[in-house]
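Lecture 7, part B: from sequences to assemblies.

Below are the input chains for today's worked example.
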Amino acid sequence: MARLNVNGRMMDIDAPPGTPLLWALREQAGLTGTKYGCGIAQCGACTVHIDGEAVRACSLPIEAVGPNQKIVTIEGLSEDVSHPIQKAWLQLDVPQCGYCQSGMIMAAAALLAKKPKPTDADIDEAMTNICRCGTYNRVRAGIKLAAGL
Amino acid sequence: MNAHVKLSRRALLKGGAATAGAFTLGFSIPFTEAQAQAATPEINAWVVIQPDDRIIVRIARSEMGQGTLTGLAQLVAEELEADWAKVGWEYPTPGENLKRNRVWRNFSTGGSRGIRESHQYVREGGAAARMMLVEAAARNWNVPVSECRAAKSIVTHAPSGRTASYGSLAAAAAKLEPPKDLKLKPSSEWTIVGKSVKRLDTVDKLNGKQVYGADIRLPGMLNAAIKACPVFGGKIASFDAAKITGMPGVKKVVQVNPHTVAVVADTWWQAKTALDALPIVWDEGPNARASSDTIAAMLREGLDAEQAFEGNKAGDAKGAIASAARKIEATYSYPFQNHACMEPMNATALWTAEKCEVWCPTQNGEAALAAAIEASGHPAARCDVHKVHLGGGFGRRGRSDYVTQAVLIAKQMPGIPIKLLWSREEDMLQGTYHPITMARMVGGLDKDGNLVGLHMRISGQSILAGVNPQALQNGRDPVVFQGLNPGGAEGPFGYGIPNLLIDHAMRNPHVPPGFWRGVNLNQNAIYVECFMDELAHAAGVDPLEFRRRLMKNAPKHLAVLEAVAKGIGWGAPSAPGTAKGLAQIMGFGSYVAAAAEVSVSNSGAIKVHRIVAATNPGHVVNPDQVAAQVEGSFVYGLSAAFHQECTVKGGRIVEENFDSYPAMRIDEMPKVESILVPSGDFWGGVGEPTIAVAAPAVMNAIFAATGKRVRSLPLKNADLRRA
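Predicted structure of the full complex, as structure tokens:
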């Protein structure tokens, strides 16, 4: 049993300590917005925030997350698709299939929180998520739109 | 007939409601919303209008990111004279399609066919519904139909100024006989088609609410992880289920078929953990001796083989080359590649003694249904498939192997919904791969540098031989010649060469091939367009000018090429350290070209600075979504060109995840300028063709930058260091 703070709520997670956070979120907490893509922290589809940092949940066991650490998933990013990144994504129709976009949006939101006016190099460095449909140019444009650049 | 149809639908919805009662979905999918509206009559198969004026357009093709859902809805809405703001959508099920004599026709979503092959009948569906709504209004007002007009979901009787909303007319319209005489709007009158309206499926992809197959949850559902023999053609010798049956959550170890075993557990993570611990002994069979080297040798033999299937022939190519002033020769190769959809393969199945239901992402709902019928042992009328959005398809989800597996597992656990999800590793090892081919290109130049003969010998794998051998034509696979054909929508060859021979020595290794976004156009464009560049350089002629001379009878091919040449500034000096390359091809019904500006560092690192792409798809339904497909095509095409290769060792694929099978990321992504030049006289696809010109444009630019000709993919294997 682990106690996790997810999207502002304390949750008791009935899973062995070695269970990756991704699967605890998806299968115990019922938050399926966070996606499985590779399981080895390569693709970023499972990106969530822990205390504001973008983290790949597929490779982080729940025992490594304390009850005081604040986990935010795509479901908790905003109540009503009102985060600036979500608004920009909507305006530019960024997603294609959309499967990678939860992780993409969480990575972008973490970037903006740290660097409100990111450069192209900042975007290249922070946005290492894989998108097979090929939305990268709209992801870049979306981050700049959200940043008011 | 209409009334009968509606009775059937009601009966079906009743069945659907019973299902929903027994297994309430933990989420809302569009079709369940529609089921809740069962009292709302449909105007026809394509259009349902609710009393509150909301319009539901039925979409038979699958949405996997390519935007076909929105484009098809635009086509229906245009003829319906709908208020676009009120338009929504739903998927009919393949089972309903079967029950209604395939009223929605083809569900298959591949080959960039969504719009190009259904635009006519979906528009007719919208037009018929509009005419019935107008007629309902006219009857209600007791006025001639000719005095009534529809616009923005409202019918107006001009002489009296009376109006009625579609929602208020729907019930009456639904009772009318469908019209027989349909006249579609000319493109000059389109107000919804041709506009960059927003996609209908974006919001739920921004907040985690979009339910993909991997996200499906049903009450009482168990989860399955699966492993098939990694050597294709091998089978299970034995496995020791007792070793894992006591592991947490494990419910059952299931042998799915002679070469596949699955573990069913409470959660997928438990199932996967137990499966990883399951001792399995494989009987790998004779294919275990195959490797990339043995496969390459098999293909090389085909390059010189006597026998080959002809794809395109004019004059006497071999004779012309033999007597030409100069003979230019080069051999190219293209590897196996995995689709690597972001969402690994999955399907959820519920089998009972009475019925079988499947929830899955599929590019071909009807094929998924056929797989469910066969695997379940139930008659067609007792099976159905509920489609969900795909986390990528790219051709992989046109196959139904994962549906068959899910049903076979569920059949061993009656009454329990089973969600089967492949691991990334399983997805990489059990693919249906981009076919592997080589091509020997031989050209003859006369003393003035004119191309007098070309022989293109393709050696390698046939997709049809692997997936649909009945479709072979006396052994010949016509799909091999995409982009190289004498004519037709699948790529007339753009070059007029007096003596031409394009032929295929079919060599099929044991690795299963599949349709992979862009299919055979991908390597054919590389072979032709890079070799054209080689010929141009050998002739001492500018590559654009060399092509122009050969394209006098292919104005549409040439027009897109000229458009990208202009866009990239062909002929003008390149920025210091950069060089340019061009490529064109026709396929999937559309004409495409690309120009790339590239630099190569002293250490051999390639950077693509800029891409200009031009597309003539005939008609453009949604310019912004076509642009999105063009942009995305460079990611898919350049990921393949730079990074992706599935190698074979011991009969199995070596690359198991994105660490050894990388995809392009944002830092490698060039700017893409998409030019649309629709000529308005045909309907072509846009999801795939541009992929084919991505690699050759870049490869030609690499040559221009370095003087080194790369003829083997992926480019990560090329040594471009400066000496």
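Note for the exam: The first strand of chain A starts at residue 2 and ends at 6. Keep this in mind when comparing with the next example.
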